[in-house]
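Much of what follows relies on a compact textual record of a protein's fold. A record is reproduced here so that you can trace the correspondence yourselves:

. . .
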Amino acid sequence: MIIIKGHYGALGNRLWQFAYLIAFGIENKIIISYPGFYEYAKYFNLTRNNIFCSFPSISIPFKVPEYIRCKYFNSVPLVKRLLLRINRINKIYSHHWVKTGEYFDLDKESEFLKSNKIVTLEGWLTRCNKSFIKHSSSIKYLLTPVRKYREKSDRLHKKLRMKYELIIGVHIRKDLSDLYGGIDVGSNKAPSNISFAQKKLTKMGYDLGIEEINGIWGEKSKKAFQKYKDNTQNIFLGIGEKDHSLYTFEEYANLVKGLQKLFKNKKIAFLISSDTKVDLTHFNRLPIYLATGHFIEDNYNLSKCDYIIGPQSTFTYWSSFYGSVPLFPFSDSSNRFDLSDEKRINIELSNFKVCNHLF
């Protein structure tokens, strides 16, 4: 049995890591469990009644409360420490930590992983592309969203297909909370996670009063928060590089116009998926439609398009994989695609490729 310790990123990252683990489990007939998937378990067929987020599924005939899965997730580090201290069973248990930036090929390490009855695996870059490609159809089936999250998307696409020849999914990424240590810097308002934000700011050396660490958003908090935003608006915490994957709505409008030139002989619609409210005033007279706004439905919406375009993101990579849709990830955190002038935007069909696996 292999258990993933911890979780990495949001929906896209966790879907990919879970999918790789499932592929390895199918190929090697091993039970796998990903407790860190608990936040998203209710949205997918494999996990909605699956108490351990496991494959094969250990399902029960009723809805599993999220707090139970959360308790299981929080217990994994404790179980790991206990097992490591009991030396007499070290032949049936091992823990492997994949260092940050280190690539761990599950396929190549299959004998090691099967040499113990229980293995806890820790790290983001755990892959098995050989098994993943082989079992991709099974992965798509197992990680299909439950019906209620597919129905709205299916109706929307059916309506659009009656009017348009092509539907291009556009992913607008504006939420900065994941980039800045979990603090929401996308608004001038106090972040929803006030206590966490204040503790983070204090740890980073910003001046906050003691009385404000208890969830009170006073003047010192406001000043520290604004200073923090000014200093880090386009900076990754701890890395110090500009994030080139964030664009203005005006730039996205230029992108849409550039795509219209590419498909000038087709009647096309653009379906926008975004993690923030879209300012439609920048898209006047453009055939723009908004996805439902729910992250599961939006991911599924993109998977039903003819093409997908957006900044590099595991969110759109998953949509491309799940729906076998050609994707153009036009920019990442270190390389910026110039969208400032629609006349200079040059996109070719060869830029779009189906994502069959991560690197």
The longest strand covers residues 166-172. The longest helix spans residues 66-85. Residues 176-187, 232-244 have pLDDT under 50 and may be disordered.
